[in-house]
Design brief:
Layout (H helix, E strand, L loop, with lengths): L11 E4 L7 H22 L17 E6 L4 H15 L3 E7 L2 H10 L4 E5 L8 E8 L7 H11 L14 E3 L3 H11 L11 E5 L8 H8 L3 E5 L18 H10 L3 E5 L6 E5 L7 H15 L6 E4 L4 H9 L4 E4 L3 H11 L3 E3 L5 E3 L8 H15 L3 H4 L8 E7 L3 H4 L3 H14 L3 E7 L5 E8 L2 H22 L1
Parallel strand pairs: 2-3, 2-4, 3-6, 7-8, 7-9, 11-12
Antiparallel strand pairs: 1-5, 4-5, 9-10, 13-14, 15-17, 16-17
Helix pairs in contact: 1-2, 1-4, 5-6, 8-11, 14-15
Length: 467
């Protein structure tokens, strides 16, 4: 991924109006995607030497486009549509739709690819373009590289008779809502539960209230009045304080906060306690283990609390740690044959239900565990005791190189020896700036602070020596 010119770990993202998040570039991107898909489609359906020709009723590649509620989404939707149609691709427009909803509808509509216009939990000034394959999964590196190469080609429009066509999918919200409900058993009911939903003024504002109401819950909403500019503003999974206040004010059983594009979720307990993805993983894993549904290890990340690892171990469940990023969690789940994984930030993947992280589906999986066990969220997570965590940032030129110095390696080994069996330490260099993050967890908060400061100082000193 380091060799990519435009694609990062999760598509293309930036400040609206600043290249490449500009209308002219997105127009070219649409054409490039369409051209690549057309070539691949032609190759896939080319007659084999001795076998029958594959037949497909569609002449053109088809691309599904969804977006969150940012005002710039209209501009980029139009630009993508024009570029794709110019390349000869057909387009299906979903309107505001959670990222996992786009992934689902890409598969359901048997499209060649899906595109999401969103910058997730960022403010409205940012936007981005994310892609899904026809299977509803992130694009592979080879396809991204092919799209980047095509971007260097001159913009060209196919002959008029070969142009693609675009139309809106009027029942997109209903289709996705029905899918979400299908991920729980037919007799599952939320009747009697009072739930507050925080939709972050984002892509879940239509579909989430429908899903939870249809399943019988008494639903209250906040963050469900998008105006194009207020997405993620003081609401949503990155600002759960507003939800905590609403849960207390309504006397609700719990609150559910999504981020702007709906792939991240945080839960607030009945007493206003804000929890995170580690709590969700523990409760779902515990329920699946008791029901014999859990396969493989649970996959967390380098940032998953050591308390989660200890609590899972007590249930004879292994925790595998992936690099930070839901695509890396997915990779580890596939590699180890697992079904459940996620990040502390609230990306939770339930691969027995879908191919990617989905905030609504993950919340339903949690509620299914609570209803199935007859427990409140507080009761269900009582067996999880998180350890105090200190994270220090060491910002200095040469900080990343300092991790290879003998001095830092020696201090790291000493700290690991002190924490062996009762805590952990993570040294992680930023991939985008001269920064090293020092993270330490253990039961004694004072010891955690002391060891983190010692290790951070060793990194800083080594960086200065290398400067």
């Amino acid at each position: 991924m380091s060799e990519r010119k435009y694609f990062g770990t999760d598509g293309i993202r930036g400040h609206v109006g600043t290249y490449p998040i500009s209308a002219d570039f997105i127009l070219r991107l649409g054409r490039a995607v369409g051209a690549v898909l057309a070539r691949r489609r032609a190759a896939d359906h080319r007659p084999a030497g001795s076998g029958p020709e594959r037949r497909d009723p569609r002449r053109h590649a088809m691309v599904v486009i969804g977006k969150d509620t940012r005002v710039s989404g209209y501009m980029f939707e139009s630009a993508l549509e024009a570029g794709l149609v110019a390349s000869g691709a057909d387009v299906r427009l979903l309107g505001p739709m959670p990222t996992p909803g786009v992934a689902y509808l890409t598969r359901s509509l048997r499209a060649d690819a899906g595109i999401v216009i969103s910058a997730s939990h960022n403010p409205h000034q940012d936007n981005g373009i994310k892609f899904f394959s026809g299977q509803g999964e992130k694009l592979d590196d080879a396809l991204e590289a092919e799209i980047e190469a095509e971007l260097e080609a001159e913009f060209a429009t196919v002959a008029s008779e070969a142009l693609g066509k675009a139309r809106r999918v009027d029942d997109a919200v209903t289709r996705y809502a029905e899918f979400c409900k299908s991920t729980v058993s037919d007799d599952f009911s939320l009747a009697g539960l009072r739930i507050v939903l925080d939709c972050a003024h984002g892509a879940t504002y239509q579909v989430a209230p429908k899903v939870f109401t249809d399943l019988g819950a008494e639903v209250f909403t906040i963050g469900a009045e998008p105006d194009g500019l207020n997405i993620n503003r003081e609401v949503g999974s990155t600002a759960p304080e507003a939800l905590a206040q609403a849960v207390l004010a309504r006397g609700a059983d719990l609150g559910i906060a999504f981020d702007g594009d709906g792939d991240r979720v945080r839960i607030v307990d009945h007493d206003g306690t804000v929890t995170d993805g580690d709590d969700m993983l523990y409760v779902i894993a515990r329920h699946w283990k008791q029901k014999g549904l859990l396969k493989g290890p649970v996959v967390g990340t380098l940032m998953s609390n050591y308390g989660l690892q200890r609590a899972l171990r007590q249930m004879d469940i292994a925790l595998v740690r992936a690099n930070v990023g839901d695509r890396y969690v997915l990779q580890q789940l596939k590699e180890h044959g697992g079904l459940l994984g996620g990040e502390t930030s609230g990306h939770v993947l339930c691969l027995d239900r879908f191919t990617t992280g989905d905030g609504i589906v993950a919340a339903l999986a949690l509620l299914e565990a609570l209803v199935g066990e007859g427990e409140t969220f507080a009761q269900a997570r009582a067996g999880l005791t998180k350890l105090p965590q200190t994270m220090l940032n060491v910002r200095a030129e040469g900080a990343k190189a300092a991790l290879g110095s003998d001095a830092v390696k020696q201090v790291l080994a000493e700290v690991e020896s002190v924490l062996e069996g009762r805590g952990r330490v993570v040294l992680r260099a930023s991939g985008t700036e001269p920064l090293v993050r020092v993270t330490i967890e253990a039961a004694d908060a004072a010891e955690v602070d002391r060891l983190a400061s010692r290790l951070a100082e060793a990194v800083k000193s080594a960086a200065q020596a290398l400067a």
